[in-house]
Amino acid sequence: MSIFERVFDKIGDDEKAAEAVQAAAPEQEASLAPEHLARVSERCLAAAALSVYCAACDGNVSIEEYMEMDINIGKIKGKVKLPETVEKELDKISSHHDITWEEVVVYLDKLNLDSLMELSDDVADIVVASDGVNEDEQRVVDQFANYVKSRV
Length: 152
Description:
The chain is mainly alpha-helical. Helix content is 72%, strand content 0%.
């Protein structure tokens, strides 16, 4: 299960209701209450930024990593009707392979502690997606762990 799928698995009853509406009428995109849509948008943007940062931390995003990120961002867009500004931001993030930690933190800072903790497990999944964990990937794991500790 990808980081993006996990984000949607943890969203809550209103979002599940929107998914049920979408399943019943697939030609219509699911809609959420504004406060939930804002929360989903923040989680998606943070997950995308963190994913790109982790994938690119060793200076190279493989074609497989790029394709997976592109597919996952497409899944986000297809699951819930996100505001156009969020969709554009997702596109910008997915193509910004030289994203810095400081840029990622801007997205992470918008998450509450529970949402942030949910992303903690996913960082390890991202960095081990290739052939083990190299020094740069370990640095990302440590960087994120220190960030989470600073928020606790």
